[in-house]
Fold this protein.
Amino acid sequence: MDFCSIASGSSGNCIFVGTERTSVLIDAGISGKRVKEGLYAIDRRPEDLDAILVTHEHSDHIKGLGVLARKYGIPIYSTPGTINAMLEQQLLGKVEEGLFHTVTPDCHFELGDLEVQPFRVSHDAAEPVAYRMRSGEKSVAVATDLGYYDDYIIEHLKGLDAVLLESNHDVNMLQVGSYPYYLKQRILGRRGHLSNDNAGRLLGEILNDHMKAVMLGHLSRENNYEALAMATVCTEITQGDNPYQAKDFPIEIAKRDMPSRMIAV
Ligand SMILES: [Zn+2]
Ligand SMILES: [Zn+2]
């Protein structure tokens, strides 16, 4: 299974997951043009996409969705709540009704040779989910836009071969930064975003011997920077109550405006 971040950050998210037979995107939160360029950069084409799996209706996850679905007839998969929100708020322009498919959290389904498992996350959107995907013995997951994690989230992220996990903000930078009070509260709240510390702690719970790649993603432009996210997460892993050290795993930052390396698991 191939796994690649085409773009990740508060300004737009788009992750590619594919096997030899099946290709999907998780979110299309950058322009259709940038998605196409990103796919070409990893030797894939938008025409080959079997589906776009949408986590939730915020613009940094769906900016290019309408254009791509229209232009290439790509099926859109998401929860009923997210699909309704996108349609009611007219966020996609005109997209053929037949392209929408609903998914149910905790019910897995097949897309070619990929098994997709959506699971609930706590975030200030209509019905947000994250996705875990399996092909044969291998599993990967993308989990961003979650205010907190609990045993349910940990359970869904166990036994992975690769993961892209949100490491959104540094709590101190956010607290002393220029964001208005209500926005700070929103980001720090139960339906906000995962901080660097929490990303590190969550990784401590889910790391395992066959984890081949860890990507930290959805970094805030205002309230985080790459070296700080990396240092904080690594400290949490190494000092945490788990059998590992951060150096036991390749950990990298999923860039805001550049595809990551292609991770093959
Ligand atoms: Zn969001
Ligand atoms: Zn987001």
Q: What stands out?
A: Residues 13, 58, 60-61, 145, 218 surround zinc ion (ligand 2) (CB under 6 Å).
